[in-house]
């Protein structure tokens, strides 16, 4: 046995991870169900490092030094279970199975439990950064046992993206913690993209600008506090001209956003955990709405478009700055909600996830990498128990500076008929948190009226019920 770590499943992500490992001096055992992919990897990239190729799973396992570490890089769901079932009888106690796919954290918890019964470690690992990231340095979010991290940590940290000399990889927490945090990363990714899309839509309508002009605005924004991978590639996509028609690329792409499910999972778990991640939810629903072509057509037929155009033409610069500030403030809300979600998951499952460290490993490699994650890290370093990111001094100032712009943009968009579900719901969330008294009191009154569901009072302990149907006296409920 000569290999330090193995990868089974050599589609593009698996192949790139294997190459990244080899390039960093790790001897990598490689295996794929159909051996052509294994052979192609050796012939195309064998010179990059040490690959130990096997055509059978048994040989692949034998080629690994103990404790063996096997990265499974196949499709989430049933294919992952099938590979794990094949591996279990071939492995020995202390060996480690790593799932680097986008698995649901509850599947990861289940698998971890099963493998633990066999004396094996199961490490659900979030890997972000797409194909390029896998090859050149992803952000890596491993869960599983602390013991497994002793072997995996140094290997993963060597292949992860590095920011200021710090690797974008930590041991996130036990069992499903890594996949949970990756799921929330993807939820934030949905919100981030929806906010960018709304900003684009507003600029396009409000200024009657071309995609090329808007690309320049995003390029400019990428030099300031909004600097991030997604803003950078937004400029590239908007500037792109379709080769076939000569039209802006965004105008020839069908406007129906697809999804593979991690955003939906985030929202589903948020409902279970009771965390109002409204930005991520609106972003997910906006994708769904875009796909309902028939309903969109029906609505357009009866409510002809009367959208205002170029309403901001008189104060171009002022409007662009308003949209920039609204985007930044809404983005802070989306991240605040995402980090609340991590806290809630961590408490529910006893993971003890460090939010500041999580912000640190999202600074590079991953899709949501952004300059402002440094600010988030600082906020949690200063106060690990911060009740909401919005209350940290840096973000208090940032949001306060932007709030008037944010309100103008949301009001303008409503007036003009440009949908901004993520901008608007983020502002409503912000106002909801800071409002002294919420109308939730009335909801409690209604619940008690129709169903004797009881309410609590501001002035005394306990639950109460009013006899709505008779003399309206109040009694203490047990
Ligand atoms: C990443 C990405 C990746 C995800 C895509 C597509 O972190 O590298 O999050 O894991 O698969 O973003 O997701 P959707 O198809 O759901 O948009």
TrEMBL record:
The keyword Disulfide bond does not apply. InterPro entries: 6-PGluconate_DH-like_C_sf, 6PGD_dom2, 6PGDH_C, 6PGDH_Gnd/GntZ, 6PGDH_NADP-bd, 6PGdom_BS, NAD(P)-bd_dom_sf, Pgluconate_DH. Residues 178-469 form the 6-phosphogluconate dehydrogenase C-terminal domain. Keywords: Gluconate utilization, NADP, Oxidoreductase, Pentose shunt. Pathway: Carbohydrate degradation; pentose phosphate pathway; D-ribulose 5-phosphate from D-glucose 6-phosphate (oxidative stage): step 3/3. It comes from the Bacteria. It holds the Pfam family NAD_binding_2. It catalyses: 6-phospho-D-gluconate + NADP(+) = D-ribulose 5-phosphate + CO2 + NADPH. Its EC number is 1.1.1.44. Signal peptide: none annotated. The keyword Oxidoreductase applies. Homodimer. NCBIfam families: gnd (TIGR00873), PRK09287.1 (NF006765). Belongs to the 6-phosphogluconate dehydrogenase family. Catalyzes the oxidative decarboxylation of 6-phosphogluconate to ribulose 5-phosphate and CO(2), with concomitant reduction of NADP to NADPH. This is 6-phosphogluconate dehydrogenase, decarboxylating. The gene is gndA.
């Amino acid at each position: 046995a000569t290999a330090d770590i193995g990868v089974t499943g050599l589609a593009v992500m698996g192949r790139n991870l294997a190459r990244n490992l080899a390039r960093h001096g790790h001897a990598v055992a490689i295996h794929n169900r159909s051996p052509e992919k294994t052979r192609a990897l050796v012939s195309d990239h064998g010179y990059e490092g040490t690959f130990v190729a096997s055509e059978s799973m048994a040989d692949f396992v034998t080629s690994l030094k103990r404790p063996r570490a096997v990265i499974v890089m196949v499709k989430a769901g049933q294919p992952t279970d099938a590979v794990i079932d094949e591996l279990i009888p071939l492995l020995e106690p202390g060996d480690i199975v790593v799932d680097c796919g986008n698995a649901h954290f509850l599947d990861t918890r289940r698998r971890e439990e099963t493998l633990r019964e066999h004396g094996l470690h199961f490490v659900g690992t979030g890997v972000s950064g797409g194909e390029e990231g896998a090859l050149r340095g992803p952000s890596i979010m491993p869960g599983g046992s602390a013991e497994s991290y002793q072997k995996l940590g140094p290997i993963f940290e060597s292949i992860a993206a590095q920011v200021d000399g710090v690797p974008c990889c930590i041991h996130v927490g036990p069992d499903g913690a890594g996949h949970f945090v990756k799921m929330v990363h993807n939820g934030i990714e949905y919100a981030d993209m929806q906010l960018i899309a709304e900003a684009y839509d507003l600029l396009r309508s409000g200024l009657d600008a071309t995609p090329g002009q808007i690309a320049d605005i995003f390029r400019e924004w990428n030099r300031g506090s909004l600097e991030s991978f997604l803003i950078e590639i937004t400029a590239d996509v908007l500037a792109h001209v379709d080769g076939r028609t000569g039209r802006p690329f965004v105008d020839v792409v069908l406007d129906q956003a697809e999804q593979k499910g991690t955003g939906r999972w985030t929202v589903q778990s948020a409902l279970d955990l009771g965390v109002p991640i409204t930005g991520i939810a609106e972003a997910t629903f906006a994708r769904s709405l875009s796909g309902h072509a028939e309903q969109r057509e029906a609505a357009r037929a009866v409510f002809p478009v009367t959208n205002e155009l170029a309403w901001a033409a008189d104060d171009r610069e002022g409007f662009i700055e308003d949209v920039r500030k609204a985007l930044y403030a809404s983005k802070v809300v989306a991240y605040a909600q995402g980090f609340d979600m991590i806290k809630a998951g961590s408490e529910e499952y006893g993971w003890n996830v460090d939010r500041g460290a999580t912000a640190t490993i999202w600074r590079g490699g991953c899709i949501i990498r952004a300059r402002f994650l440094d600010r988030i890290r600082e906020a949690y370093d200063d106060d690990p128990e911060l009740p909401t990111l919005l209350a940290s001094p840096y973000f208090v100032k940032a949001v306060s500076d932007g709030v008037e712009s944010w309100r103008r943009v949301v009001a303008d968009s409503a007036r003009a008929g440009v949908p901004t579900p993520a901008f608007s719901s983020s502002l409503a969330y912000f106002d909801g948190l800071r409002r002294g008294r919420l109308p939730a009191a009335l909801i409690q009154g209604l619940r008690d009226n129709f169903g004797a569901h009881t309410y609590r009072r501001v002035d005394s302990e306990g639950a109460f019920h009013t006899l709505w149907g008779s003399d309206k006296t109040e009694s203490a409920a047990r």
